[in-house]
Design a protein that fits this description.
Blueprint lengths: L1 H17 L6 H11 L4 H20 L10 H9 L2 E6 L17 H13 L3 E7 L2 H9 L5 E7 L2 H4 L2 E3 L4 E10 H8 L4 H6 L4 E3 L5 H9 L4 E2 L5 H9 L5 E5 H10 L7 E18 L3 H14 L5 H12 L8
Parallel strand pairs: 1-2, 1-3, 6-7, 6-8
Antiparallel strand pairs: 3-9, 4-9, 5-8, 5-9
Length: 320
């Protein structure tokens, strides 16, 4: 029995020591002497007091939590990650209504939401790519994942992630115009001094690219890419300007356009597609870059075309 109480008291004494109480040496000696006394009931009483003291002490310690950066804390507080996208579908990046939305950009946005631990809400009311950027700039959206190109003017108002797709810039050119203006020169030489009518989607990155790369051209921005293709095909304008993926899609969707048009890839002009974040959202940007680097860093034109064809493939009817 005495051996049992010795073990109990030794355990209590060790618990007491781990509290790391700072007391005077004289007090320590007195406490130690108490534990060596022979009065068992007294030992039990003292042990009970010490155990109660330790419980009360640890109960008063504050819970250890790491404060979140302001941008992540704000998202956590509202419990939703708002993603800005244009109203018009851009398959295979994003297409479909709110319940059935799909595409590469949708997947990226949802992965970011999972990493933060909040659901994702897709905002699809932007009339243009420029408006998508503005929604991020003024805080109406947390991110813009909308096949968004990095441009100089946009870098003045938002931050961009690492690119998750790098596309070459390209053109669809009317064959008759090219024949009349080439004068025996190669196509790339004609493009260097391009002075015809060139069209692009209004308020898109190619509005910026065209005015930078083709200063002698006549600019005719349009709301619809289909309108641009038709205008090039029938000779109303000399060329349409967009990325290589959209140009390659023409041969898949409208193979007859090859009769009157020629497609050209501009190998030294790159269109970097990335995610836009508010200029103050540095931690959110780090999370976005992590997702891109680990899961979406090798998306090329071929993979995009494979995605696009898979989405366009008709679904066989279910037979009973």
């Amino acid at each position: 029995m005495q051996f049992y109480w010795r073990r109990v008291l030794c355990y209590g004494f060790n618990c007491f020591v781990t509290l790391q109480l700072t007391v005077k040496d004289k007090y320590n000696r007195e406490i130690y002497s108490i534990f060596n006394e022979k009065n068992t009931m007294k030992k039990i009483l003292i042990l009970t007091v010490l155990m109660l003291f330790s419980v009360l002490t640890f109960a008063q310690l504050p819970t250890s939590t790491v404060p979140l950066p302001p941008d992540i804390a704000a998202i956590k507080k509202k419990n939703v990650l708002i993603i800005a996208m244009t109203k018009k579908d851009v398959p295979p990046f994003f297409s479909g209504d709110a319940e059935n939305i799909r595409g590469l950009d949708v997947e990226i946005a949802r992965r970011i939401g999972v990493l933060i631990g909040v659901p994702v809400e897709f905002r699809r009311d932007a009339e243009s790519f420029a408006e998508v950027v503005e929604q991020v700039r003024d805080g109406r959206a947390d991110l813009a994942v909308s096949k968004l190109s990095i441009t100089g003017p946009r870098l003045h108002t938002v931050r961009f992630s690492d690119p998750y797709v790098k596309l070459k810039q390209a053109m669809i050119i009317n064959r008759l115009w090219l024949s009349q203006n080439s004068q025996g020169r190669e196509v790339y030489e004609v493009l260097r001094t391009f002075n015809g009518k060139i069209s692009f989607i209004k308020n898109s990155s190619y509005d910026t690219f065209a005015r930078t790369n083709f200063p002698k051209a006549v600019y005719t921005p349009e709301e619809s890419w289909d309108t641009i293709i038709n205008n090039v095909t029938n000779g109303k304008i000399a060329a349409g300007y967009r990325d290589e993926f959209e140009i390659k899609k023409i041969s898949f969707e409208k193979p007859e356009a090859a009769i009157t048009t020629k497609t050209v890839t501009i190998s030294d002009s790159i269109d970097n597609i990335a995610v836009a974040v508010n200029i103050n959202s540095l931690q959110l940007l780090s999370i976005v870059n992590y997702v891109i680097k680990n899961e979406y860093s090798n998306i090329d034109t071929k993979k995009l075309m494979d995605r696009y064809k898979a989405e366009k493939k008709p679904v066989a009817p279910v037979t009973k």
